[in-house]
Amino acid sequence: MPTPYRPIEEYYQLRHTIGSGGFAKVKLAHHILTGEKVAVKIMDKAALGPDLPRVQIEIEAMKTLTHQHVCKLYQVLETDTKIFMVLEYCPGGELFDYIVAKDRLPEEEARVFFRQIVSAVAYIHTEGYAHRDLKPENLLLDETHNLKLIDFGLCAKPKGGMDHQLSTCCGSPAYAAPELIQGDEYLGAEADVWSMGVLLYALMCGFLPFDDDNVGALYRKIRKGQYEVPDWLSPQSVDLINVMLQVNPKCRINVKELLCHPWLTEGLAEPIDFRTKYSNNHIDEDCITEMSIHFKKSKNTMLDIIKDWKYDDITATYFLLLNKKRRGKPCRILVPP
Ligand SMILES: O=C(Nc1ccc2c(c1)CCNCC2)c1ccc(Br)cc1
Predict the structure, then answer these.
(1) Which of 70, 98, 148, 184 has minimal Cβ neighbours within 10 Å of its Cβ?
(2) Interface confidence (ipTM) of the complex
(3) Which helix (DSSP H) or strand (DSSP E) does residue 88 occupy?
């Protein structure tokens, strides 16, 4: 019985499954026009049930968030029964598995990764988003061994801006801030800083600062905010973890201060640069030229269509051509016009 025709197969050659989670399956695929590898996250609407709004939240967030350490969304396709999200290919898998495989990371390697994490989180905060589920399972390694933040299904974009209090309790308990599990109103940015503190601890220790099989006991440990300090941690890294894992969010370091903390800026002349390397309004000339030939449009018309950012095959073709160019490959569409 042939696979039922899926609109995705008009643009991508689907390959094997590379991951399957709660209500999603992720398949490796090749973009037909450029030959570029992508990851296609396939969700069944019926299986999603009450979680369907989370997918819409994730799609809207990922359309807005374009950053070198945020997993890129290229295209969204929807049928009566399925939602397909075409995403950046991250063959290094989850940071979680990388830490487990190495037991724990040397401080220098943890610093390189943590700079990328802080850069991604500082960027999404400036765009008005809080992630609210930061953990090593939601950080993937791309083919150049750089981190990409995924899973914006629990993110929040408070209507009143990042100073607006949130109240929904979400995320993974071991990484959740005390104020969040307490049920108090909280600021997404402050809760994300706590989760990054737990993340940094996990990177350099290989285990969690607050852990217990019993959720109630775990919550008590988080609210107490006491954790072991292994002797292999340097004084600077202990200081950073300490200011991030402050139980009182008002005593906790904020993201702006984090960007210039001595442990993070060690050996650098300036604070961590969190700005995106992509620019929304500048469209690459070579990509426009190649696409205008293939789609038989004038360059001006092609530019206008690209700038609609519909997250259709045009958006995907543009970003994937740009990827090719950035990797030093010819900025070419492989299929004749
Ligand atoms: O690209 C992804 N995963 C991936 C791709 C290739 C490989 C892996 C993961 C690891 C498993 N071995 C094969 C290599 C990927 C990208 C975005 C999201 Br969301 C989820 C997964």
Answers:
(1) 184
(2) 0.93
(3) strand 82-88
152 lines ligand 1 (CB under 6 A): no
- Taking the C-alpha atoms of residue 313 and residue 8, their distance in angstroms, rounded to an integer, is 10
Smallest CA separation from ligand 1 atom 5, residue: 91
What φ, ψ does residue 21 adopt, rounded to 5°? Answer: -125, -150
Q: How far is the C-alpha of 311 from the C-alpha of 281, rounded, in Å?
A: 16
Ligand 1 contacts CB of residue 19 (under 6 A): yes
133 is catalytic: yes
Helix (H) or strand (E) holding 121: helix 107-126
- Tell me the two tokens of residue 315: 């958006």
CB 163: neighbour CB atoms within 10 A? 9
Lowest mean pLDDT among 49-53, 74-78, 91-95, 228-232: 49-53
- pLDDT tens profile 235-278: 999 999 999 999 999 999 999 999 999 999 999 989 999 999 99
CA 38 / ligand 1 centre spacing (Å): 9
39 CA → ligand 1 middle, Å: 6
- For the question of whether the overall pTM of this predicted structure is more than 0.90, the answer is yes
Burial class (CB in 10 A: 0-12, 13-18, 19+), 302: buried
- Among protein residues, the one with the nearest Cα to ligand 1's atom 3 is 90
Give tens-digit pLDDT for 221-232.
999 999 999 999
Q: Which atom, in ligand 1's list, is nearest to the CA of 37?
A: 1
